User: What shape does this take?
Amino acid sequence: MAGEEPDRAARILSAADDLFCERGYDGVSIRDVARQAGVNKALVFYYYESKIKLFERVLAGYYEAHAEVFKRAAEDASGDLRARIHGLIDTYFDFIGSHHRYARLIQQEVARQGEHIGLIRDNLAQLFLVSHVAFADTLPERGPLAPKHFFLSLAGMTINYFTYAPALGEVWGDDPLSEAAQAERRAHLRWVIDALLDALE
Assistant: This one.
């Protein structure tokens, strides 16, 4: 029976992950999570105590993966500044492409200024710190060329593509999430960064 506990806890977390990303925080109840996980409601409270703590665990899992991939990409980057940023763009684009439902969820939470804004703020601080370390030797600490602006520009150009994708398909007459469309978007991001770096140089 002991082996069932981690499995049940993981099933609950996975169900919560799916439901929160699909419906947002307000659109999900503990009963919904229990039903999808195939457990009784009491077990959800047993493992995660409350809906808020369960939601925070979902967000924390995303941010942990986010910070790790950003840090790893920065550490693995080699070559000149242009090559390093291209590598960072490719890694980040792949990550958000696989996790874009979380980006949409976080945008909803920021817009509603709910009780989770502190958690989002704390994790953003960590991501900004990683970006600062990655570019500290090539970009000024303050001003319009500071690492924080590069991070925000890269993140915004990447995340918005995926969060707008459901509305873009009909407008473009093409699937923005197709392999060809994503390759085109990646090339565009590289072009934008190259233009910024040309100005910087």
User: Anything to note?
Assistant: The chain has two domains: 1-49, 56-200.
